[in-house]
Amino acid sequence: MGQYLTISLARKIHIEKKEAIRYNLSLTDISDKLLTDWGVDLTNYDCQEEESTWVFNLKKELIDKELLNFLSDFYPSYYSANEKPYGGILTELRNSKDVQSTMNAANSQVFKLFKHSVPILLYFENLDFRPRIIVHPTESIILAFQGKIIVETYDEMFQFFSKVTQEKFKQYHLAYSLLVNLTI
Question: Where are the beta strands (DSSP E) in the chain?
């Protein structure tokens, strides 16, 4: 078994309060660090505070407003003109009436692309001289993947790939909810 390099749209992100308190980090500190290191903009999310975590859900109105147009630009940029494994996805999304219908397309796992991903872990560096997991994108939709891949140290590379991808699609707020990472 191996890992795949993925570009995913983070739909839900959990941030552990315990770890934030341990490192004396405010939610603003974490938000700033996510934007600086990974290019993830938490203003794209609605925040719900729970006892032990902050839960950020990608705004439904943002999905409704941008997803189809974003993917209509993203997929032809990613794939060659001869390869179009995304056609059925765009058709399905055009026929979707609302966010729930769109998410049902991802839940159905019918498509090779545009399907739910296993959780990804993001690390903050230099906290107590070792990385600590405090951010968990718990629900993501895989937009593209390649693999199998074997790497040992990769955070800076994936952060760079995330930022380059976000820069290419900066006209979309959704670009700042993209993550480049490995499946686990």
Answer: 3-16, 45-49, 53-58, 115-117, 122-127, 130-149, 178-182
- Amino acid, res. 86: Y
Residues whose CB falls within 8 Å of the CB of residue 117, separated by 6 or more in sequence, listed in order:
6, 8, 139, 140, 141, 142, 183
At 129, the pLDDT band (50, 70, 90 cuts) reads very low
Show the domain range for 104: 3-182
Q: How far apart are CA 98 and CA 124, in angstroms?
A: 35
Between 148 and 154, the more confident residue is: 148
Residue identified by tokens 């552990």 is 16
d(CA 166, CA 9): 11
How many structural domains comprise the chain? 1
